UniProtKB/TrEMBL annotation:
GO terms for molecular function: hexokinase activity. This is ROK family protein. It comes from Succinatimonas hippei (strain DSM 22608 / JCM 16073 / KCTC 15190 / YIT 12066). InterPro entries: ATPase_NBD, ROK. It comes from the Bacteria.
Length: 303
């Protein structure tokens, strides 16, 4: 059996998959205790114990999807927006608490791995998975293996500058700073949060992405303008990196991936920006939705 834990900012979820057909055998979600590292360790340990008891097994290893990554220099967590993890030796501490071999992997990489193994990317060699949610992260999978990178930066797309910024976007970038400290990051424009921020600039109202999507469907002008700007920015950001890695499939996840109209508009928009103006890569919706973190983490335990 494969044990995977998705350590999110608001919830911690364990998923247990069968070895042969990856069927879900056990699943449980509990709230993440924020700002408490000791509680993070005990929560994960308790979930593992509970799953083992329920399934009457004892496993040797667990995979954990984490926000951020493990520093190649200090071997502690860095770049996590669950900031209480940063600077902690999570791998060592979890191995001590659970008594298991632990595999840690960035949550966007776990999402991409899950989709590459048995999701929307299962028939492709090079899978680029993009999460467009509260934040925006991506993972690159080749032959069902994650490109982690020497510095743990494989697939870190969101903290590059938005390509080919116009004057309006340059003004936004000047005023608004990304949590990473830089200005004009892709994430600040193409995440769900970025979508909501643009709607606020257009209409003066802060609404949820789901609410704005409803307005878009009902023909609201501000929502339509926001969507057009969003698609154009996402297309530029995809084109720039497709020029570089040219994946076989692009899989979208996170809240924004539920906008069906995105799949009609994006391909021809990407074509406008990509080198040579030809783009035949399928852009598809994730199959496993928000289960991907735990599934991808479980796949880390595959022999
Ligand atoms: Zn940034």
């Amino acid at each position: 059996m494969l044990f995977g834990i998705d350590l999110g900012g608001t919830k911690t979820e364990i998923t247990v998959l069968s070895d042969n057909n990856y069927a879900v055998l056990f699943k449980k979600r509990v709230p993440t205790v924020k700002n408490n590292y000791a509680a993070t360790l005990t929560t994960i340990s308790a979930l593992v114990d509970e799953a083992q008891k329920a399934l009457n097994v004892s496993v040797d290893s667990i995979g954990v999807a984490i926000p951020g990554t493990v520093s190649a220099i200090t071997h502690t967590i860095k770049n996590a927006n669950s900031y209480w993890l940063n600077g902690q030796d999570l791998l060592h501490d979890l191995e001590k608490t659970t008594g298991k071999k632990v595999f840690l992997e960035n949550d966007a990489n776990c999402f991409a791995l899950s989709e590459a193994v048995d999701g929307a990317g299962k028939d492709y060699k090079v899978v680029w998975g993009l999460i467009l949610g509260t934040g925006s992260g991506t993972g690159i999978i080749i032959d069902r293996k994650t490109i982690e990178g020497r510095n743990g930066l494989g697939g870190e797309w969101g903290h590059n500058p938005l390509p080919w910024m116009n004057e309006y976007e340059q003004e936004i970038a000047k005023i608004e700073q990304c949590y990473c400290g830089k200005h004009g990051c892709i994430e600040t424009f193409v995440s769900g949060t970025g979508f909501e921020a643009e709607y606020e600039r257009q209409s003066g109202q802060r609404l949820s992405g789901v609410h704005i999507a409803k307005l878009l469907n009902s023909g609201n002008k501000d929502a339509a303008k926001t969507f057009n700007l969003y698609v154009d920015r996402l297309a530029r950001s995809i084109a720039c990196f497709a020029n570089f890695i040219d994946p076989d499939v692009i899989v979208l996840g996170g809240g924004m991936s539920n906008l069906d109209v995105l799949y009609q508009e994006l391909p021809h928009k990407v074509k406008e920006y990509i080198f040579g103006k030809e783009f035949v890569t399928p852009i598809v919706k994730a199959v496993h939705g928000d289960s991907s973190g735990g599934r991808g983490a479980a796949f880390l335990c595959r022999a």
